[in-house]
Amino acid sequence: MSNTTVSPQAAHANRHYTVIVAGGGQAGLSISYYLKEAGIDHLVLEKHSVTHTWRSQRWDAFCLVTPNWQCALPGYPYRGDDPHGFMKKDQIIAYLDGFIAMVDAPVLEHTEVKRMKRDVDGRYNVSTSNGEFTADRVVVASGGYHTPIVPRMAERLPAGILQIQSSQYRNPEVLPDGAVLVVGSGQSGAQIAEDLHLGGRKVYLAVGEAPRCARFYRGRDVVDWLADMHYYDMPVEQHPLREGVRDNTNHYVTGRDGGRDIDLRRFALEGMELYGRLEDLRDGRLQFSPNLIENLDSADDTYNRINASIDAFIDRQGIDAPREAAYEPVWRPDGERTSFDLAASGITSIIWCIGFTPDFSWIDAPVFNGRGYPAHTRGITPQAGLYFIGLPWLHTWGSGRFSGVARDAAYVVDAIRASLDASVPATDSLAA
């Protein structure tokens, strides 16, 4: 891995930059790629080291859930020999290392941005753990997943039970002997539950409202079909949910062992204990909502609905593809079980997989809604000179992923270049 790591002394030799990029993940490095292409001086500030999250917050068996051909970082598309495969953790890191070396971004690592505010002259003051900087423009590229969600009831669980968040999980062997409760069934929760299950651990899974999709359907990866259907080109304003889609939980599926469905019902047949949403701990008993049947049925409905949309596309296009029947449940719960005795269960570990909340508290700017998310159009905020990149559905499905961040970064840098060419600060109004 190689990048232009900037020393604090060198960074402060020029305390002012045309653009400061806050965050050195794939989004921030993509912005740097286009800024360099445009000849715009800039500095990338990274709290840890570049692409830190991919290296430190993924479990050992982690792999991509989208095929390798969707890895399309700017100037650095996937060039391997398995475009329809799914890179494992070490392969992802190798891919990122190549991108880092190619971009050669000016990065000041181990530098936390403490405060950022625009002054009366329109210049941004950026206070960091490595001193003060100023910039004409700021791009926030720190993503939207900052603070792990752990419910307050966790404080009342027995001290002898290990509690970790999904980003801390590595493999079944590092957990204490005994059963494991996984809370949440989104992408991380479902895949971690599978990892534990395959590792021979007794798993209890609190199933949430996450949808699921097929890995392969009618002879192809579902992602390939959806790409042909231009789903990944759909802008957020054309999605049926509009901006509400940003709150959706990702569909659970896996690229493990060449890719397959994740079917929680099949896990149940094999001994995994499924419950509804975890609600509370009372008198030593964990309490669950009576919504397991509803959540499983809803996930399957989404699965079949996506496949039906592919069927319709195949029919419209006259494509010759093998027929497949709709999914039929392989297991149904006898009824809703809403509690069990925690001590008797043998649970020694709990893994919280219920997501993250954003933390943009360090940004002093009137651009946030009541839930702490920035108002923007394709990353351009109502405040002149302030931009965001790498957020879920910033513009399309791929905005927070390897597949779509290049398009978003190019658009944001084009907007920066246009505002600089105008030689006057952009108007404080939401860009069209």
Automatic annotation (TrEMBL):
<dbReference type="Pfam" id="PF13738">
    <property type="entry name" value="Pyr_redox_3"/>
</dbReference>
<keyword id="KW-0560">Oxidoreductase</keyword>
<protein>
    <submittedName>
        <fullName>MSMEG_0569 family flavin-dependent oxidoreductase</fullName>
    </submittedName>
</protein>
<dbReference type="InterPro" id="IPR024000">
    <property type="entry name" value="CHP04046_FMN-dependent"/>
</dbReference>
<dbReference type="InterPro" id="IPR050982">
    <property type="entry name" value="Auxin_biosynth/cation_transpt"/>
</dbReference>
<dbReference type="GO" id="GO:0004497">
    <property type="term" value="F:monooxygenase activity"/>
</dbReference>
<dbReference type="GO" id="GO:0050660">
    <property type="term" value="F:flavin adenine dinucleotide binding"/>
</dbReference>
<dbReference type="InterPro" id="IPR036188">
    <property type="entry name" value="FAD/NAD-bd_sf"/>
</dbReference>
